[in-house]
Request: fold
Amino acid sequence: MSERITAPGRRTGPGKDSVTFDDDATLHAMGYPRKLTRRFQAFDNFAISFTIINIISGIFSSFGFGMNAGGPRILVFGWIGVSVMVLFIGAAMAEVASAYPTSGALYFSAGKLAKRHKGAWSWYTGWLNFVGQVGGTAATGYAAATFIQAFVALQWDSYRPTAEQTVLITALIIVLQGLANTYTVQLVAVLNRISVWWLLIGLVVIVSTLVVMPDDHQSASFVTHFANNTGFTNGIYGGMLGLLVTSWTFTGFDGSFHMSEETVRATVNAPKGITRSIGYSAITGLVLMLALVYSIHDYDRVAGSSAPPVQILIDGLGMGMAKFILLIVIGSMLFCGLANLTSNTRQIFAFSRDGAMPGSRWWHSVSPRTRTPVKAVWLAVACSLALVLPGWWSHTAFTAIVSVNVVGLFLAYAVPVFLRLRLGDEFQPGPWNLGRWSKPVGWVAVTWILASSVLFMLPQVSPITGDNFNYASIALAVVLTVATVWWFATARRRFQGPVSYGRPDEVAAMDLV
Reply:
């Protein structure tokens, strides 16, 4: 990867070394006035994506699935392989982010990169991104509520978690995160910085205790152990399903892209935030994965437990230390949800700014006190709560709704990368670009997204029943159907993609901060 310093909208070439990193000028050139405060430095931008990816939350939430779909061989080597593929996706997205550093991120760049039907490309990308992010906020809150109840059940034997309690705790978590984004914006920025150290220190604590405290560990060759408890007789298919553990973890790194308008030197720091968050998560996640795998004692008993990672902690560390580690995991999930909601809010702000949502004039308004889109915060909260509510009656219904989270996000990631590839040499790269590697990296990224999206929608357990059926394909079909009907009914006449508020000098006069 090269980090070439070029003027916004110009190619790198001989004699073109100097550049002024004027964030406002870049934003004005794209037709937008400055409404948000640039309070994010490079580390803050990185922290958003690193926290949303959240290797502790992702691995602890999906480790049990991986134990039954491929076992250690897929958990470890699958993590390495899929991490590399995700880094390709991140690098391709980062190049686009450098060229178009706006809160609109994916949908904005899709509209700008499309040769024809700009409005349609932007519309579908924006709604896939919106639904994926809302589903991510809901799913992360639900996971945190589940682990909170696991902790309470360990602390008090008489406690019995119920679906209703899980929904209520999830709702409380999301509302509190909304309040934080409304009244303590500076604190949210601080918490995003703290979250990185929470994850890293938490990782050190978890790994070191799993290395030191257990009486014994699995042999070195255990990493090649293969297990297929999915019910499908084809081991290759079962192992391929296990690759989803890593894919589930690596979502949300578009957060750095969405925070562009609040980031200093966004044309460089936003793409760096994307790639660094993926790279560091890949390395630290592998360390955590190895620590958990080698600490498994009775494989079948752990794989069959209700929460395999928790069982590993109890077996190897004892009840007291297991509870302490659970608190670290719960804290990681809460940080993840907060960062996800913040990113979700910026996408709503930008999408509404271009008139793509009902009540757009409300959702893109900015609080004069905090210089943040407060109304968009509560739309994100309300939509996340709406997704959580079906969990009151059925965990399957909730899973069906939030399952579109990962598929929706990755398809939204693919669109601007594909359009950039189709544009060819007409694409005007930003300061951070891949040079001659741009096209091969982009094609690998798009190909992997399409392949992994198919995996996300295939059956994951056999025999297939109403309770374990993978509803991701149905959820995605519903989202696309609604978006299509809406598009042809009214949207195509009023939404033509990203709008320009005027010439650079005109929009500069509209700056609010």
